[in-house]
Amino acid sequence: MRHTILVGLCMAGVFGLSACDKAIDKDAVDREFSGVNAIDGADLNDVMLTVGDPNEAVAYFQRADAQDSGRIDLMRGLAKSLVRAKRHQEAAIAWAKVVDHEEATSDDRVALADALIRNNDWDRAEQTLDSIPPTHETYKRYRLEAMIADANQEWDRADSFYETAVGLTTKPASTLNNWGYSKLTRGDYAEAERMFFDAIRQDPKLFTAKNNLILARGAQGNYTLPVLQMTQVERAKLLHSLGLAAVKRGDVEIGKGLLRDAIETHPQHFEAAATSLAALENTVTTR
User: Fold this and answer.
1) Strand locations in the chain (E)
2) What are phi and psi of 263, to 5 degrees?
3) Does 193 lie in the same domain as 159?
4) CA distance 273 to 244
5) 158-207 pLDDT per residue, tens
6) Which helix or strand (DSSP H or E) is residue 228 part of?
7) How many domains does the chain have?
8) According to the model, what pLDDT value does residue 42 have?
9) Is the whole model's pTM more than 0.90, yes or no?
10) How far is Cα 16 from Cα 7, in angstroms, rounded to an integer?
11) CATH number of the domain encompassing residue 162
12) Ribonucleoprotein among the record's keywords (predicted)?
C-alpha cells in the first residue's frame, strides 16, 4: 500500500516539476520544439510546394524565412511558391536573392531566367542564361534557350534548342507545343500542325495544343475538326477558334456557320461565340 502511495507521489512530483519547467523555462521548451520542427520541416516544405493554395505557401515560406533567414532551401521555397502564385515580379526578385546566395547552383540561375521570362524581362533572362556554363545541359535550360531564340527570331538556333530539349525529357508535350507555335508564327503551318499533333499525342489533355492545332489547320483553309479526345466544352471552343480562323482568311460565311455550330455544341450559353457571331452579322447588315 505504501508502495502504491509512493509511486503516486512520485508521479505527482514528476507532473508538478513538468508544470514548473513549462512555467519557468518556456524558452528551453521552444528551443526543443524548434529542433523538432527543423527535422519535420523538410517534409512540410515539400508539401507546401506541391499542394494547397500557392499564396498560402508564399505566406508559409515568408514566415519561415523571417524566423530562420539565410537558409537557401527556404529562399528557394519562397521563390518557387511565388512562381506558382503567378506573382512574377516578386518571384524574379526572390530568385535573384537565391542566386546571390553563396550556395546557389546553376539550376538556381536557370530558375531565375525562367522567372524573368515570366516577368517579360527577356534581356536579363538571356544574360542570366549566358552566365551559366555550357556544360550545364538540362531540359529546362534548353527550353528557355529556345524561347529566347524565338523571341530574337533566331529560327535555326530555336529549332536546335527545341530539338535538344525534347530529347532531354520524358514529358515533351509543352515544349512540342511551344515549338509548334514558333512554326505557326513563322507561317510554316504544315510543320506547326505536325508539332501540335505530336504534343497532343504526348498529352491528350493539353487543350492549348488542341487550340493551336485548329489555328494551324484553319490557316491552311482546313475547317474540319480532327479526330481528337475532347469534351463537349472543348469541342465548342475549338469550333469557335476555327470559325475565327475562317473569318481571318476571308471565308466569312464558313466562319459564321462554325460559330453557330460552336453555340449549339456548348452545353451552356457560349457568350464569346455568340458575341463574335453577332458582331459579324451586324457588320454584314450595316453594309
Assistant:
1) none
2) -65, -40
3) yes
4) 9
5) 999 999 999 999 999 999 999 999 999 999 999 999 999 999 999 999 99
6) none
7) 3
8) 63
9) no
10) 14
11) 1.25.40.10
12) no
Is 206 in the same domain as 142?
yes
Contact 217, 249 (CB under 8 A): no
Which of 158, 153, 176 minimizes the C-alpha distance to 166? Answer: 176
Is there a domain that residue 33 lies in?
no
Judge contact between 226 and 257, C-beta under 8 A. Answer: no
245: nearest Cα among 232, 256, 229, 234: 256
Q: How far is the CA of 179 from the CAs of 11, 126, 186, 189, 229, in angstroms? A: 72, 18, 11, 12, 22
Residue 175 and residue 141 share a domain: yes
Same domain for 56 and 77, yes or no, is yes
Give the domain range for residue 78: 47-116
Please check whether residues 59 and 97 belong to one and the same domain: yes
Question: What is the DSSP track for 126-152?
Answer: HHHHHTS-TT---HHHHHHHHHHHHHT
**How far is the C-alpha of 278 from the C-alpha of 274, rounded, in Å?**
6
Asked if residue 272 is part of any domain, the answer here is yes
DSSP E strands in 66-203: the ranges are: none
Express as a percent the part of the chain with pLDDT over 70. 84
Q: Which of the pair, 97 or 22, is modelled with greater confidence? A: 97
Q: What CATH number is attached to the domain comprising 99? A: 1.25.40
Half-sphere exposure of 36 (CA within 13 A, CB side): 6
Average pLDDT, the chain: 87
- Sole residue written with cell 546553376: 106
Q: Is residue 199 in a domain? A: yes
- Domain assignment present for residue 42? The answer is no
- At 9 the pLDDT is 34
Q: Is 206 helix (H, G, I), strand (E, B) or coil?
A: coil
Last residue of a domain, one of 222, 243, 267: 222
